[in-house]
């Protein structure tokens, strides 16, 4: 390029020695990038950092009622120590919601990622036909928001509407309703599976496409079957993508909210504290107790971080071992 | 899982067969994919049929059999409280469309600076950003509500738009795209010509990053359109609702007035149509490589 003739660097233009040059240098090296980052930094501080600090602050506060609690100044906020945390962690409703979500995650994540991986590998296989149609169709539910998909599946679960119940009735069998208390977890898993499998498939498929095909040619010459290639070469190569999808799925699982909230009008078995996040919502807005809601949110966030870091630590050596 | 389509797992015998049948089409793998596709299309096909039924037909005729009342249902939905449904649709377009455009521009700017400038504190900012990617939204929604309430902004369009503009993941992606697609000497050349930094970004760097920015836009659009909890918490006035919160409320009322169910289903159908169209048109921009940057970070 013509650039090679001119001196490079913004400072090169003001070649005068001494302080003007340093001032210019400071301006271009520090002020300009920070000015350009300012909108991002301000929004980050306002809508991410400040809320986190504020939640921490609230989680250590409690309401103090003096006298009969009737006058305007009879209620005040006082330091609560760890009270909110203790009551959050010992609250049987919270424990129950955590257990429900753990069961939900244990069922959902392996199924979702397993099917996503299977579909991605099949799409990548040269012996598969109708790939474009299938890829589009499987990815499509990602465009449907969780509320709408919960609504659609919610109706499909109703025994009066469900085609599966219809077929079973024709055969003289009465299927149990998926909205029953002990099956509703599976009902929610299915909604999340439907919404999530396509996105994860695309992530895995994208990283499969990035692999140079010579590797496969070499494997084929060595007599590797397609399944062997998939198991021994493709899956290890896309391991980083698998790790990231697993991580994002776990974070999303802990925050499940829209699906059970939308299903509630159709399924009486779903309590207002079905998931930890629903419990937080109920405490904050139905019971007007932002302090325990704050403590519970901190517990959920901390658990998310701990699980993320533990998971990354466990898999890091395997997935990213070659990097270091 | 009992109600979903059943997809057989590949059997070990495929390994043996694959060696013989090399490039020939495989019925098994094509079949599995088609089953997966049918499972994913099924609720969409069902709502197409269900939205065309009258209230009595919904629970009496075979569930996948279409009827003739689609237009009636749409008319009735439009009449519901003077076209409230269409207002929800417009609100959703505003929240997701405007929100995603602004968010993409800001992510692009921040990512570009982080990729192309060397300045003190850069490593620290990037670390905070990466942690921001992992911050669960749960911890933010309630304090965001309380803080916006102090500012008198809850129950306004701002309360849903503003918190969703900052996207650590979008910035992270933009940084990768900027590093890969904007050559440093182009920026230098523009600077020696005397171009101002924002001009360089808006007129030179942004067009180079455009394909990546479409991906960020789509990500952000879906994230906002999918975010149920934030508008659910922030908004009380149903004229400000996005479609998700609106339909959720309608479904709740349907529990006591089942006549509303047909409206809910027609609404669900109408609400996914624009998104599905946008999705199909922009499909090639979905090159999601979550891991590419993560490995190099």
Write the H/E string of chain A, N to C.
HEEHHHHHHHHHHHH
Work out the helicity level of chain A. Answer: 55-70%
- Percent strand of chain A: under 5%
Mean pLDDT of chain A, to the nearest integer, reads: 84
Number of DSSP-assigned strands of chain B: 0
Indicate the CATH architecture of chain B: Orthogonal Bundle
Rounded Rg of chain A:
27 Å
> Could you state the oligomeric state of the chains shown?
heterodimer
Shape of chain A: flat
CATH class of chain B: Mainly Alpha
Query: At the third CATH level, what is the topology name of chain B?
Result: MetI-like fold
Number of DSSP-assigned strands of chain A: 2
* Biggest beta sheet summary of chain B: none
The percentage helix of chain B is over 70%
Under the CATH scheme, which class of the largest domain in chain A? Mainly Alpha
Describe it.
The complex is a heterodimer of chains A (324) and B (297). Chain A is mainly α and 324 residues long. Chain A has helices at 19-59, 83-90, 92-124, 131-139, 146-157, 163-170, 184-209, 214-221, 226-237, 239-254, 258-263, 276-286, 290-320; strands spanning 61-65, 75-79. Chain B is an all-alpha fold and 297 residues long. Chain B has one domain: Orthogonal Bundle (MetI-like fold), CATH 1.10.3720. In chain B, 71% of the residues lie in helices and 0% in strands. Chain B has 15 helices and no strands. Chain B is globular and about 75 Å long. The model of chain B is unreliable at 1-10, 15-21 and 291-297 (pLDDT under 50). Classes of the chains: A mainly alpha (324), B mainly alpha (297). At the A-B interface, helix 1, helix 3, helix 4, helix 5 and helix 6 of A face helix 1, helix 2, helix 5, helix 6 and helix 7 of B.
Keywords:
heterodimer, A: 324 residues, mainly alpha, MetI-like fold, 2 domains, 13 helices, 2 strands, B: mainly alpha, 0% strand, globular, disordered C terminus
């Amino acid at each position: 390029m013509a650039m090679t003739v001119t001196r490079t660097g913004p400072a090169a233009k003001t070649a005068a020695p001494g302080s003007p040059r340093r001032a210019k240098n400071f301006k271009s090296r520090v002020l300009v990038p920070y000015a350009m980052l300012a909108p991002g930094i301000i929004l980050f501080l306002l809508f991410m950092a400040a809320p986190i600090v504020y939640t921490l602050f609230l989680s250590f506060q409690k309401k103090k009622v003096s006298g009969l609690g009737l006058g305007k100044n009879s209620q005040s906020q006082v330091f609560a120590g760890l009270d909110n945390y203790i009551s959050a962690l010992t609250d049987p409703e919270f424990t129950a919601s955590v257990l429900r979500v753990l069961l939900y995650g244990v069922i959902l994540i392996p199924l979702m990622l397993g099917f996503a991986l299977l579909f991605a590998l099949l799409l990548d296989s040269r012996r598969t036909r109708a790939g474009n149609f299938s890829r589009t169709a499987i990815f499509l539910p990602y465009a449907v928001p969780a509320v709408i998909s919960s609504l659609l599946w919610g109706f499909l679960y109703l025994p009066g509407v469900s085609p599966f119940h219809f077929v079973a009735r024709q055969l003289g069998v009465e299927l149990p309703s998926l909205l029953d208390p002990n099956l509703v977890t599976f009902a929610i898993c299915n909604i999340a599976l439907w919404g999530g499998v396509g996105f994860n498939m695309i992530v895995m498929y994208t990283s499969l496409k990035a692999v140079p095909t010579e590797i496969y040619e070499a494997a084929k010459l060595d007599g590797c079957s397609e399944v062997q290639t998939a198991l021994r070469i493709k899956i290890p190569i896309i391991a980083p993508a698998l790790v990231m999808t697993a991580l994002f799925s776990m974070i999303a699982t802990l925050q499940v909210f829209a699906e059970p909230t939308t299903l509630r009008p159709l399924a009486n078995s779903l309590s207002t504290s079905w998931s930890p996040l629903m419990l937080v919502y109920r405490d904050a807005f139905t019971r007007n107790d932002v302090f325990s809601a704050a403590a519970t949110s901190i517990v959920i966030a901390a658990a998310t971080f701990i699980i993320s870091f533990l998971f990354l630590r466990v898999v890091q050596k395997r997935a990213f071992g070659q990097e270091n | 899982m009992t109600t979903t389509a059943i997809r057989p797992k590949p059997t070990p015998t495929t390994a043996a067969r694959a060696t013989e049948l090399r490039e020939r089409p495989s019925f098994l793998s094509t079949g599995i994919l088609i089953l997966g596709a049918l499972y994913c299309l099924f609720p969409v096909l069902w709502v197409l049929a269900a939205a065309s039924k009258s209230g009595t037909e919904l629970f009496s005729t075979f569930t996948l059999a279409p009827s003739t009342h689609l237009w009636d249902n749409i008319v009735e939905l439009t009449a519901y409280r003077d076209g409230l449904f269409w207002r929800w649709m417009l609100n959703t377009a505003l929240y997701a469309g405007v929100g995603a455009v602004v968010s993409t521009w800001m992510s692009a700017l921040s990512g570009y600076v982080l990729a192309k400038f060397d300045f003190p504190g850069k490593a620290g900012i990037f670390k905070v950003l990466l942690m921001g990617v992992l911050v669960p939204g749960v911890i933010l929604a309630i304090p965001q509500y309380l803080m916006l309430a102090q500012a008198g902004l809850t129950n306004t369009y701002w309360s849903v738009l503003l918190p969703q503009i900052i996207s650590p993941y979008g910035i992270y992606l933009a940084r990768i795209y900027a590093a890969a697609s904007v050559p440093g000497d182009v920026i230098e050349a523009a600077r020696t010509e005397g171009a101002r930094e924002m001009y360089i970004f808006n007129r030179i760097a942004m067009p180079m990053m455009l394909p990546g920015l479409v991906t960020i836009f789509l990500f952000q659009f879906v994230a906002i359109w999918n975010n149920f909890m934030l508008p659910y918490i922030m908004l009380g006035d149903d004229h400000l609702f996005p479609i998700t919160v609106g339909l959720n409320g309608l479904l709740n009322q349907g529990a006591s007035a089942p006549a509303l169910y047909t409206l809910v289903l027609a609404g669900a159908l109408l609400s996914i149509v624009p998104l599905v169209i946008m999705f199909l048109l922009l499909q090639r921009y979905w090159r999601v490589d979550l891991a590419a940057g993560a490995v190099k970070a």
